[in-house]
Amino acid sequence: MSYTTEQLKQIARQKARDFGVNEDIFLRLIQKESSWNPRARSGVGAMGLVQLMPATAEGLGVRDPYDPVQSITGGARYLSQQLKRFGNYEKALAAYNAGPGNVERYGGVPPFKETQNYVKTILQGVAQPKAPPKVSETRQAAPTEQKGRSLLESFIDLMTMTGIPGLRERSSLPEVQMPDYSEGSFSPEAQELDLALGAYNSAQNQDQYNEALKEESQRQLQTNLMAAEKAKADLLAQALGSFTTPASTI
Fold first, then answer.
1. Domain end point (choices 135, 163, 197)
2. Could you list the residue range(s) of the whole structural domain that residue 44 is in?
3. CA–CA distance from 130 to each of 62, 114, 150, 242, 246 (Å)?
4. 6, 23, 33, 211: which one is catalytic?
5. Known active-site residue 114
6. Judging by beta carbons within 10 Å of its beta carbon (0-12, 13-18, 19+), is residue 67 exposed, middle or buried?
7. How many folded domains does the chain comprise?
């Protein structure tokens, strides 16, 4: 189904309201990303009206990034997630453009000229409403979540985030409440991995792609995968100890 630009703008305004983001900012984001071209594709593979990278689109439930409604819905959801995560539109837009990992790394808008111009262009002349509180300000994890997570729980979290086949299928392992990405409650190990992958998945131009892949994916991802291997070894050692039964006495 084809849409006129005015129809697309009406859909974008509705989705912005649905996800609690500023309508004018979201419309400017789409204008900046694709100039309202549903078939737009960047040199690094970002697709559609809101220019989602393949992995980001998949994580947002967007099966066809070139479908205008799916694309707009995914873009509004993703901007809303970044707004809740970082607390203001400046950082949220920077995360949309350069990846949340880079915003975390630099403590704000990264020193990338393209990203700085991106944020400035979208926000220029727009009266910014107060953003919703950051997740960290509205949800404090219970002590058992912050301090009492076992090696097994953290390792299962990490396997879930990396897509490694989990040990949850083994009936001998306890059921663990899995982390909710949208609420920012995943374990420190999984969060580190998210930061490593974020810049890679959300990079919007070739320079940022190369930097994200080199500095984030290679360094932090390697570190976290090494941690996963150590956790796996420790877990197997624990499992062997728990399954050992004392020899029967004669």
1. 135
2. 5-135
3. 28, 25, 38, 52, 63
4. 33
5. no
6. middle
7. 2
